[in-house]
Amino acid sequence: MSRHIRLWLQFDGTAYHGWQVQANGVTVSQTVQDAIEAVCGRREALKGCSRTDAGVHALRYAASFFTESAIACQKLPLALNAHLPADIRVLSAEQVEENFHPRYQAKSKTYLYRYWNSPVASAFEQERYAWRVNAPLDHAAMDHACRLFEGEHDFAGFMSAGSAIALSGGSTRRHVYRARVERAGSELRFFVTANGYLYNMVRIMAGTLAQVGTGKMDAAGVQAALDQAQRSLAGPTAPAGGLFLFGVEY
């Protein structure tokens, strides 16, 4: 009898070309499918909660697959991890409803972007896990500006050109429930929770906030990028290494 299994994963995306299976590079999805095939005896389709880009990480990522294997859910994490590289871990597994979809049924997703704000590189906070910004960042100004993202807006100004939505003419309106910037010593953390995201939206938000933090842009400039929905008015796209999928709510 077929069962629908949801996995909660954690991964370091540095070595992967994102989540989605691609013909020209190793992806997280492909690697997890390899492990499922080794443990369950068949290669199964795997659906994920987000199409993370190359180099982006996840602290808590949801994915699901159908299987006829009778292996108990509580035994699946250890079994799968035995066939996975150390930079991908299955945290837990549970049986879910047949119609569950990890992406379309998500009520919200939270992303974390990490900045390392110091002229001296850390031996631990390598650029694969944080964006090192040498110039002092004004945490209070960034926190004030990021709250402008809250609410429902047209985020076309915070979307990379060439995205599928831009090409298809789909809606670029999204609802941000919460946005905050916190400081812990030399590390700044930008958290954003929304009902959905456009292509590179969080990285462009993070790049824009860095401009605010260094005084190259003010809150009025962020508001203008939102109001006029023009990519040229927002800041640069921040490096992928600082971005983590922090959590998903269903």
Compile the SSE list and pairings.
Layout: E1 3-11, H1 28-40, E2 47-48, E3 57-67, H2 76-81, E4 88-95, E5 108-116, E6 131-132, H3 139-146, E7 151-154, H4 164-168, E8 173-184, E9 187-194, H5 201-213, H6 219-228, E10 243-249
Helix pairs in contact: 3-5, 3-6
Compose a concise summary of this entry.
Helix content is 22%, strand content 29%.
Please provide a written account of the structure.
This protein has 250 residues and is an alpha+beta fold. It has helices spanning 28-40, 76-81, 139-146, 164-168, 201-213, 219-228, and strands at residues 3-11, 47-48, 57-67, 88-95, 108-116, 131-132, 151-154, 173-184, 187-194, 243-249. Strands 1, 2, 3, 4, 5, 6, 7, 8, 9 and 10 form a 10-stranded mixed β-sheet that branches. Helix 3 runs parallel beside helix 6 (219-228). It is globular, with a radius of gyration of 19 Å. The mean pLDDT is 95.
- Please tally the helical runs, counting DSSP H or I stretches of 4 or more residues: 6
- Tell me the major beta sheet: 10 strands, mixed
Question: Could you give the order of the helices and strands?
Answer: EHEEHEEEHEHEEHHE
Mean pLDDT: 95
- Pick out the low-confidence regions: none
Work out the helicity level.
10-25%
Quaternary organisation of the protein chains: single chain
Kindly provide the radius of gyration, computed on alpha-carbon positions and rounded to a whole number of angstroms: 19 Å
Structural class: alpha+beta
Number of strands: 10
**Shape label:** globular
Strand residue content: 25-35%
